[in-house]
Amino acid sequence: MTGGLGSDAYAGDRFWLQRGTALISTSLPELSAQATRLATAVAWFWSLYLAVVAAWSVTSHAVPIVAAIPVITIMIAYLGALYAQFPVAAEFDPRSPEQVKIAYRRMIVVKRGRLFTVYGLLLISAIGIAVVLVLSVGR
Q: Which of 42, 71, 121, 127 could be disulfide-bonded to 78 (CB atoms 3.0-4.6 Å)?
């Protein structure tokens, strides 16, 4: 094949090795950046929750205990987002490419697992805030 994206001149082994190196070198920092963005999202959820509870307390002067449930999930989600930013501990012999590869893959799996947990907590928080909002409007 000559010319175009499939040509060896453009997409040969060297190109793909360089591309793979770039993807690998940016994946862990990108996961950490994603955790930082999640912490910001949690702060936004906290602001939304406070606005809903404040509006409820102004209109009814009594906020039931169910309104406190999102506080727990929002706080845990924030702590989880902070934890997701922490580096993952790994031990390997730097002279062994196989050990480096295994350690790197483990680090990616752990980071993704932490982020998945935070996403779940945010979903639970969003549902809790929606419930509080519906209950506050219904009064």
A: 42
Report d(CA 118, CA 17) in Å as an integer.
33
Kindly report the number of other CB atoms within 10 A of residue 45's CB atom.
21
Q: How far apart are alpha carbons 74 and 49 in whole angstroms? A: 9
User: Residue 111's closest CA among 26, 32, 20?
Assistant: 32
Task: Report the distance separating Cα 133 and Cα 31, nearest Å.
Answer: 32
- With residue 47 as reference, give the H or E element that holds it: helix 13-60
Q: What token pair was written down for 56? A: 């409820």
pLDDT (tens digit per residue) in 5-27: 555 556 677 777 777 778 778 88
Q: What is the SS3 assignment for 7?
A: coil
Show the CA angle centred on residue 100, arms to residues 106 and 83, nearest 5°: 35
Residue 123, pLDDT score: 92
Contact between 129 and 136 (Cβ < 8 Å)? no
Amino acid at 3: G
Residue where the block lists tokens 């994206």? 5
Residues 6+ apart with CB under 8 A from 86: none
How far does CA 32 lie from the centroid of its chain? 8
